[in-house]
Each structure stands twice: as C-alpha cells, then as structure tokens.
Amino acid sequence: MFSVFRDLIRYNMEFAVGVVLVGAIVLFSLLSFISPVDPTAIYTTIPDMPPSAEYWFGTNSRGQDLFWHLTFAFRNTLFFGLSVALLSRVISIAVGLAAGYLGGWTDRVLMFVNDIFVALPTFPILVLFYFVLRSDLDMFKLALIMACFGWPYDARLIRSVALGLKHREFTRHAVFAGMSPVKIMFEEHLPYVMPIVFATAMANMIWSIGLEVTLAVLGFTNINIPTVGTALYWANNHSAMVVGVWWWIVIPVVLIVLTFLGLFLLAVSMNEYIDPRSRLRRMGA
Amino acid sequence: MSTYLVFALKRFLQFLAVVFTGVSASFFIAHLSPISPVETIIGRVSGQSAFSPEAVESLRQTLTELFGLNVPLHEQYFNFLRRFLVGDLGPSLLAFPTPAMKLVGLALPWTVGLLTLSTILTWLVGNILGGLAGYYQNSRLLKAFGIVAIGVQPIPYYIVAFLMVIIFGFLWPVLPVSGGFAMNVRPSWSPEFVGSILLHGILPAASLVIVGLGTWFLGMRALVSNIVTEDYVTYAELAGVRRERIVSSYVIRNAMVPQLTALAMSLGGIFSGTIITEQVFSYPGLGTLLVRAVNAGDSAVVLAVSCVAVIAVATAILLIDLIHPLLDPRIRVE
Questions:
Q1: Tell me, what's the ipTM?
Q2: Are residues A121 and B268, on separate chains, in Cβ contact within 8 Å?
Q3: How far away is chain B from the Cα of A265, in angstroms, using its nearest Cα?
Q4: Does the domain at residues A32-46+53-164+194-270 carry the CATH identifier 1.20.950?
Q5: pTM, 2 dp
Q6: Could you tell me if A263 lies within 8 Å of chain B, comparing CB atoms?
C-alpha cells in the first residue's frame, strides 16, 4: 500500500498536486478543533473588516471572524462529502458485486433498478425532501438521502469488473473449494474493485459537496449549520458583492474550487493508475 | 428491423418504469409534508379580514375536498395517478385558482430550449475538440485547452454561473444578467423579441457550456488516445488514407458511441445544473418556478415540477437510446 502511494507521488504530478491541495484543505478544517470562537455566535467581532493581520480572512457582516468560521464550514462540508461517499460506496459495492457475480435474474432486477435511479433527476427530488422536512433536514439526513442517489453509476462500473472476474481461474477454484457466494464476493472479488471504489469515492465527493453547496446557496438546507454553502448563502443574503465585502464570497469560492480541483486530480490519477497501460507509459517503461 | 422494434419496446417499458417510480416517489415524499396547503390558504385569507368560525370551517371543508385530502392516503395516491394521466395536478397556491400544470407549462419551454441548445452545443464541441486533442497529441493549443478543462471541470454550476454574474453584471456590464427577455419588449414572434430572448440566453447558456465542456473533452481525449493505438488505425495510416478522414470516420465516429451513452446517463445531472443556472440568472424556467414554489409552500407546484422533470429527463434519455442503434450497428444484433 505504501509503495503504491510512493510511486504515485513520484511519477504522477496530478496525484502529488491533488494530495497537496486536499491535504491543505483538511489541515485547514482541522484547525476548527482549536478555534477560539463559537461558529454559530454572531456579532462577536467588528463587522465588515477586510483581511488583515488580525483577521486573516476578514470579518463578515454578521460579525464573525471569517477564518475560524470557514474552518468549521469546511469541516462540516468535508465530513458531509465523506459520509455520502462512504454510505453510497456500501450500496454500490453490494449491488455491483452481487449483480456481476450472481448474474441471471438478480443481475436483471438490480440493473433495472439501477437504470431507474440513473434516470431520476436528483435535484428536484432533494428540493422536495427539503420542502417536506424543512429545518429537520440536518446534515446526516441529507447525507443519507444523497447516498441513496449517489450509487448507480459506480455500481454499474463495479459490476462490469465483477463480470470479468467471474470467469477467472481463481473464482472457479474458490467455488470448488466450497466458498459461499457472499464470501467469494467480499473476500475474492472486493480487493480487485477497491481501486475503482477509491477513484469513484473522490468523484462522488465532488458531486455531493457540489449539490450541498447549491442547495444551501438557495437556502434549501438548515442555514444555521456552518458549511461552505451556508457561508455563501449568508453572503448573498447580505448582498456582500454589492456592498463591497468581496472577501466574504471570494475566499470561500477560491477554497472550495481548490478542494474540487484536488479531489478531481486524485480521482483522475487513480483512474489512470488502474489502467496499467497508461501507468507504464508515464513511468517511462 | 424486428430486433430494433424489440429493442425499442424494451426501452419504452423501461421509460414507463422510470416515470412511474419517479412520479410515485415524488407523490409520497410530497405528502409526508407537515405543511397543509389547506391551512396555508386559510391563514392567508383570514389574515386579510375577520371571518366567523363557521365560515372558516366550511372554507376548510371545501378546500380539503378541492385538494382531495378527505380520503385515506392510498386512495389519494390512486386519484393522483388517475389525474396525473390527464395532466391535472390540482390548483397552485402561488396564483391560487390557476392549475399547477399551467404554471409548469408556461415555464417548461424556457428550460427545454436552454437545456437542449446548451447540451447539444457542449456535447458536439467538447467531443470534436477532445477527439482532435486525442489524435493530434502534440498540438500546444489543444494541450493548453486540456489543462484549462481539468481546472474548470470540477467547479459546480452554481459557482461558474455566479462568477459570470459578477463579471458581466458588476465588472464589465455588457450582457443582461437576469430575466428571459427585456422588460420593454412585447412577447410575440417579432425580431426584437426573438433577439432579446437570444441575448438574455447567452450568459445562462455560456455558463452551462463552460461547465460541461471539460467533461466531454477529457472523456473523448482519453477514449481517442486508446483508439489511436488500435490496429485498424495503423493500417489505415499505412494504406495512405487521408488524416482528416481517419480522424473523422475512423477515430471520432467509434468514440462517439460510448460518449452518447454517457450523455444519456448524465442528463439528470445536466437538468439539475439548468435549474440552478436559471435561479442565478432569474431565467423564467422550471428552476425559478421550483424555488418560488418552495418558498411559498406551494406543494402542488413543487410536485408538478418534480413530475415534469422526471418525465422530461426520461423522455430525453429514451430519445437518445432510440437513436443509438442507428449510429452503432453492433447494438442492433444484441
């Protein structure tokens, strides 16, 4: 595992840049644990101060120190993205491996459901959930709902790999040795799909964080929880761009774009690593 | 030809299943709502003037009947399905006696127009540029474009649209940043009106194109750089087929097929993007209607928008799937 990581850092610029970007954002969000301020309290500092030595990212019109506020926002947002990715990975692995290995009617039914989920437009349905739950829609419920929509692409990808594994020698050996289908799926086939699981997890985080930001900006989540989206929501609410408090919008936007870029580069480089042809080309073999 | 009919029939059944599931899910989610449309209207009416308790009670009964809420949930569901088939989803709250479907019908052409135009443009330009970049791997210009595409691709719709509003609304105000057409033009088929629509459509469409272009470019480049190493391409090169012909009919045409599948699979996401873009640019489409309806607590319109969204996306996917075998002869045999 460690040698794979070392090779990726050494031979893959994209991976190295991605690690640096995501690492920096994670460190930034971890600062929230030593934060001296309460992220939900307002009017604790002088409002509308531009970035300075005292307030690194300035303060917003609600009298919050933007630096510490954003550490909480990024912690919540990253945690949210990670939970959606984890939950939807569980579904996509289970569905993908079962459909690929068991085949037949299981495959047909699962892929039928899969195709329905691919075709459903997620955003109006998420808005519908907000409409019903209103302020009861906390981060965990939202993560759970999004995980139910974030699995179908990746399940199909995992299924295609599992289909190939099914006819390999070692699967037949495992069957003859009396392994149960569940054991074959999770002990023999799972390691082969793990690279895909990691690569798609990054893409999934981009998707879920993007949707969360969008929902929050429209005011369709609990706007009292500090996230990147709600930070932008309050900035719009106070017309930050019009009254000249540009740092309130520019700083979160730059940071979230760096996060997306980092996650995207990680996903791309892992995808490339999965394909041995392009890996060899890059290592100059 | 009969295999194509079987294929089309199978796809159509799948389309029906998608619509049924989506519409049913929307119904059940919407009816979990603790906000009663009846109480909302009563609140609004009795806020304006005083009524006797008997009058309020009879109003409540009439409205409950009007919204069909006086029967158990499963009967409401069947009533909903029956009325859904004839396109009736009840009165809206936003503009009270107007049917919700009429409001959706007014908003739909804007969204469909914006979505169709920007999606086709994005897909074609992204794929052609990506195909060229995969084939001419040493071109500096295309390499630079690839780096830009990687940088822009992961940014969500909202942020791109918002940046465009800041740039073209505050820093360099040359294009209209809100609305579907200018206030002083009367809606008709006159050149002024059409021109105004096009002018107001530039920014929303451009933001959708900018976000979408990178995905298709990168996907196509990766596909083509694999196809280029195939034997038949080498053979065509050795046989002296002109390079433009190799790129267009040997390489790009083969790579288009998986990209078409990808287009069908990503339509749902593109649709979500359009909704947000509309909201940012105050474009008079489904997205703006949806946001207004949510803020007004109008369950009928929210439900109608979700149902129409499900149908619209499913129809587009069905259409793409039906053209698919005409482009790729291998699918017909399957």
A1: 0.79
A2: yes
A3: 8
A4: no
A5: 0.83
A6: yes
